Amino acid sequence: MKIALFNDWRVGIVDGDKIMDVTDLVPHWSSDWPYSWTLALVQSVHRRAEAWIDLGARPRMPLDRVRLRAPLPSPSKVIAAPVNYHLHQREMGGAHGVYSGANIKTIEDYALFLKPPSSIAGPGDVITLPFAGRRTDHEAEVGVIIGKTVRNISEADADQAIFGITGLLDLTVRGGEDRPFRKGFDGFTPIGPWIVTRDEIPDLDNISFHLTVNGETRQAGNTANMIYSIRRLVALASYQTTLYPGDIIASGTPEGVGEIRPGDQLQLSIEHVGSLNVSIADRYAEPPDNMGDWFQKFLSAARGAPA
Ligand code: MN
């Protein structure tokens, strides 16, 4: 099942190039933040609540007539995997890498980090880059959605906790600050175009995906090449923190990361899911003019230490 949010946060089931509005089945639905009903919805569908088995006959609208939204606009958290593909590790520290010459470690050393839920964006959104003088990169990833409350789940049992997957971009300012700062700006975690439930993914360890920028292929990856598999990520995350329905895990990016600039059009395509399109605003953000001299270093920071 493909679950989408659309227009004023209505709930839809995607069927081919059509979408069926099922908002009336969703308890406590509201078009206003904090959209906490989305988390209850994930939990209920993961349990296969009865209302979702009999959807009945409903009108279907063409998908291209609706405005798709981020399928999970306010999760309790977004957990992310740093350097989870060896070829990405190599490119970062390689001769032409962003952190050339540095000893880039992997998830085995860094473990996990958090991105704020306010960094989430959705299909069709326009993302404003914060710093004109700094390099900001795309990272194409598979987003893993948790379906139930779990703690200390093993890798072998992790499937029970996985609700589904979606496309995810982990946008990143390069530099020496901590990852949650550089990757946590508003709009820096686009997800979508919808969630595909676990039953429609034949093999979590063989999902291919690719990213184009202005129509040119930049990244092509497959979850088979992960250092820590999706199940291992779920196990590690659940050992650190209780996972709740709707929590999102950004599973890491393959090689091919590169700079994004104002006006760029990004398209992330994930096997079994579909394509997520976002664009970059045609100008950089401008800070208020009373920020003070101390702020200048953030606007113009040279490549920092690897992090
Ligand atoms: Mn990433």
Molecules bound to protein = manganese (II) ion
- The structure class reads alpha+beta
The number of helical elements comes to: 6
Q: In one word, what is the shape?
A: globular
Parts with pLDDT < 50 across at least 5 consecutive residues? 303-307
Helix content: 10-25%
Order of helices and strands: EEEHEEEHHEEEEEEEHEEEHEEEEH
Tell me the strand percentage band: 25-35%
Number of strands: 20
- What is the terminal separation in angstroms? 38 Å
Rounded mean pLDDT score: 94
Largest sheet: 12 strands, mixed
Rounded to the nearest angstrom, the radius of gyration is 19 Å
Could you characterize the architecture of this molecule?
It is a single chain. The protein is an alpha+beta fold and 307 residues long. 14% of the residues lie in helices and 29% in strands. The protein has helices spanning 37-46, 86-93, 107-110, 179-182, 230-240, 296-300; strands spanning 2-6, 10-15, 18-21, 60-62, 68-69, 78-80, 113-115, 120-121, 126-127, 136-138, 140-146, 162-169, 172-173, 189-197, 208-213, 216-222, 248-250, 258-259, 265-270, 274-280. The strands form three sheets. Strands 1, 2, 3, 4, 5, 6, 7, 8, 11, 12, 14 and 17 form a twelve-stranded mixed sheet that branches. It is globular. It starts with a strand and ends in a 7-residue tail after the last helix. The structure holds manganese (II) ion. Manganese (II) ion is lined by residues 80, 139, 141, 170, 250, 252-253.
